[in-house]
Amino acid sequence: MLAVIEGQSPVIYGDGEQSRDFTYIDNIVDVTLRACEASGASGKVFNGGTGARITLNEVVKLLSKVTGKKIQAKYEPPRAGDIRDSQADISLAEKVLGYQPLVHFEEGLKRTWEWYCAVYGKK
Length: 123
Known about the structure:
By secondary structure, the chain is mostly helical.
């Protein structure tokens, strides 16, 4: 986001088809507070993602939509040790805590962009 604010191309290491289960902080706070209060949660490990994957290329496309800017990523060789895909298994959090993501990816991206603009100045 800083690259976009500064009028630069964000760097993607690899082809951009690697995916992650990006989640907004409100989701993590929610699942954590639920785990603090739920009976039967003690000793268990919960994932607080969205349960879905999004590629880095999709992130750039959605960021273009959110910002209204045409964003062209710069591709660099993949970094050693980076995993190709990851996705949180939220099934235990759903079952034990009644967890469902509060903020889905695009809305979280929009909120994050707004924060970056407020802190770093939209150019």
